[in-house]
Amino acid sequence: MSDVKVLLFGAAADRAGIRQTKVRINHVVTLGELWSVLADQHPHLIPMRETLAFAVNGEYARMEDTVSTGDEVAVLPPVSGG
Amino acid sequence: MSDVKVLLFGAAADRAGIRQTKVRINHVVTLGELWSVLADQHPHLIPMRETLAFAVNGEYARMEDTVSTGDEVAVLPPVSGG
Amino acid sequence: MFFQILKEPIDVKALITGAFHPKCGAVASFIGTTRADESGSARVEYLEYEAYRPMADKKLEEIGEEISERWKVGYVAIVHRIGKVDPGEPSVAIVVAAPRREPAFEASRYAIERIKEIAPIWKREVWSDGYVWVGSQVGTRP
Amino acid sequence: MFFQILKEPIDVKALITGAFHPKCGAVASFIGTTRADESGSARVEYLEYEAYRPMADKKLEEIGEEISERWKVGYVAIVHRIGKVDPGEPSVAIVVAAPRREPAFEASRYAIERIKEIAPIWKREVWSDGYVWVGSQVGTRP
Predict the structure, then answer these.
(1) Residue B1 confidence (pLDDT) above 70
(2) For residue C142, is it within any domain?
(3) Which range of residues forms the domain containing residue D65?
(4) CATH 3.30.1490.20 is right for the domain spanning A2-76
């Protein structure tokens, strides 16, 4: 068991009440599995699920993509730059 | 008989060799009639005829529009601002 | 090519005059500024932007690459400010120089649309009666 | 609204920052600069512009009025330089501020197209081997 660093931004950070956390995983999981753990710990994120995108190590990723220990996962609400 | 002031610009001034002239008219003529007099006096303008536009007193005018003594006529080659 | 995310005010003049080049006849730019919207008796007091870096920096560069693949351009600069941006102040500036005007216009418009699609940057509208995260509608306004 | 024909260099910064306004979220600008074209061993050394004034001033204002009728814009500035304009230097600058970006983009593009259609302004390309009046192909080049 080891850690994945999870960053939260914008409305997701606001809802979760944290900007950064660690999720303990068993070597390799899918992003979807990681989300389940994160959602359990921060249930206020659950209503946002449909609107969220995710990045693994700074690149957009899908729920079936894998996350390994040491990776950085970012929880990205709808972007609104400009 | 009195004068109409005629201004020439760009390639028209270049071809005619003048930037300004006067054309003597009898009170009121059409722009087409004025052009005939001008073209007689400055035959180098004739090959440009199809490309030229004209203004009377600072507004685009057609060949059938009238020109009176004291008016200012401008000979406008294809505009190329910007 | 110049891509930057910064906390300080955007130097619009340097960006635009930096794009002038004898091989280019056209410089199109887009600047997004804080619009002080009103709603009833409430009004936007300022915007606050945050970015996921360095992913956001990388996405701005990618947008520049996409532009270079699609259009014949000589120069692309994209600068996005983060932190607090007051009404009338620029939050984003895009400058594209090209030999001809059509690609300059098209590329500058493309850049802002792509920023709004893929750049991990978020805007919080701070109103006189609360705030709202734009796009998420999460906030504290009544 | 600001319309000007001038012999001096265009103050791009003043034009653009002058367009920032709390009611507008978008400022689109277009700047035309002298492109130093080459053809064989010859090259454009500079451009020289002339205008029929005050008709040209009036036409710039008319373009501004057309824009205000067609789009919801907050501010339009159109400045055209006359006289000699060196490579990389601006000959025309258009700045449009609007509450939203679509009209700002569309109006700035419309403005340059209309200038090229109706403003009585002419451009002479001075090449290393002669000159040519753009649009008329009248000149002294070999």
Answers:
(1) no
(2) no
(3) 2-129
(4) no
